[in-house]
Design brief:
The chain has 3 helices and 3 strands, in the order ββαααβ. The chain has one domain.
Amino acid sequence: MKTIIRKIELEGEGLKHTDVGYTTSSSIVDSINEQYDITLGGFLAERRTKIQKGEVSINVFFTTTPFVYEARVEVDTINGLGLSKITDINDL
């Protein structure tokens, strides 16, 4: 099983998700997702109601953090996707 690594950043008023690579390493996946959970994931969880009501914008998060990675999409093959294998988290 391969896990696609996505970069999430603000583009205009919305979020842009870009596939940047893939990994077969569960430690890389865990590290990326733990970081996501304490950054953007935490921001969203703490402000979900205010975001839904339009009282807070996701833009607030991205004023201090230009992007985050997420690794949650599992695939059997990456053929045709043009993605590089990530074997070291520092290669992102």
